[in-house]
User: What shape does this take?
Amino acid sequence: MVKGTSIKQGLLLTVILVTGLAVALSSTINLLIQSRNYEASLIERAEANIEILTVTVAQALSENNSALADNILSGLQQTNFITHAHLYRYVSTTDRIDFFTSYNRSDLPPLPNRANNIEDYTQATTASGSIEIARPIYNPDHQLLGYMYIRASLSELNNYIWKASTYAFASFALSLLIAGILSNVLRRYLMRPLIEVNEVARQINQTRNYDLRLPPAELLEIDHFSASMNKVLDKLQLLMRKARESDLEHHNVVEDLESKIQQRTSALRTANQELVDTLEQLHSTQNKRLETERLAAMSNMVAGIAHEINTPVGLSVTAASLIEDKLEELQGQLEEGNKEKLNAIYAEFVNNINIVQRNLKRAGELIGSFRSLAFEHAKEEPSVIYLEQFGNIMVDRLSPLLKNPEKCKIELSTDDSIIKIRRHPLEGILTELLENAIYHGFKNKDHGIIDLRLHVKEGKLLIQCHDNGVGMSEEIQKRIFEPFMTSSRSSGHPGLGMHLVYNLVTQLLKGKISCTSVADQGTKFDIEIPVQVEE
Assistant: This one.
């Protein structure tokens, strides 16, 4: 059973997740912006305080009056914002900056002397939860009197951030709660039509009642889905009705065919009992082949066999029937003693006998071709083959089939490998490839080359058979390995050669085969067969 997340769970999680992310992101951005603004305002406040202090303590520095300076700085006790303040005096004679006086908030320890690096604080800096800033102090003549340094607390900013974070978290939780409630309401609104549609679909599936139809829905997408499914159900009912009609028609055709087959079988038994036995043997051989080859297109093979056998057998039955008629006529003429009629009947009698013999011979040849598909050498043990010698033997054996050896040639390319393989299936493959090129590739063509290559690579025997003949059409190329597929049926070729090659390569020798062909440019077969290479 397939497990997954339901629509209602997905919808609830999606709404809550999107809402939570949106609220969290907006709250975080807003908190960062507000914190930066608040920090900037505190810096401005510290700068304003130090500007006021530099003016008020200038007289104390110029008069070197530390008591006045302490009195002024003591006024900082009224605020918690400024935690420390240092006043430094510039000594022009030594060009030094000396500590003059300071203020420290009562609950905090004093700060170290900043005289050596006072100029580093002329720009406000924030560190360790505080703001540090220093300003030079000048007299009316714009002469340096000293420096004013203050340290301000950022506790207000920290309190603000804490409160803002608390409010943001509360807003986030409230948003999630509202989103959950709204998504639940939305889920009910969306799921109701889905549940109705699903219930009807479940009834159709369980009861197989295809007259039911999915109900219309308020939501446009679900309504379109219901309409589409209803159309599918309409087509399904139509197909089922046509299937029932087809089954009935098929049943009638089968009964009719069975009746005709019985009549034909009776006639064939009367005409030739030996042919019936041969057909029964062929039928048995076909059943065994069906079990081993597992062909996907076996129905076409059966139809082809019936067609090929039916032609010579039908002609034989017809000729036998004519012989029977002529025998009756011959008997009548014998009683009348008409010599001319007797000679004519005798000639027709001989002609019909020749017809019977030719067609029975043709049927025997076809049966022999069918028997070749039964893998007669399936139990043959692998034998050692010298590849170069074997290739030369095959070329010498089939070269006499060439119409014009001077213009049509078989060119062999092979290596000196020694392999172990079943010899007879390999001979059958090469024989059918070369015969196919000779009879079909050079049909209506008196010159050309058949390039046969036999090589061993990485434990595989590679066979390439390439001719520059007439080639094949795309339709024939697609069906080249089907049984009874031939372009020369009128010349007596049943179309089993390439089918036999395909079975020998893929079924018996566990290899692979492919075919490429272009009209008027030739045909090429590529075969790979796993072999045992001898050292």
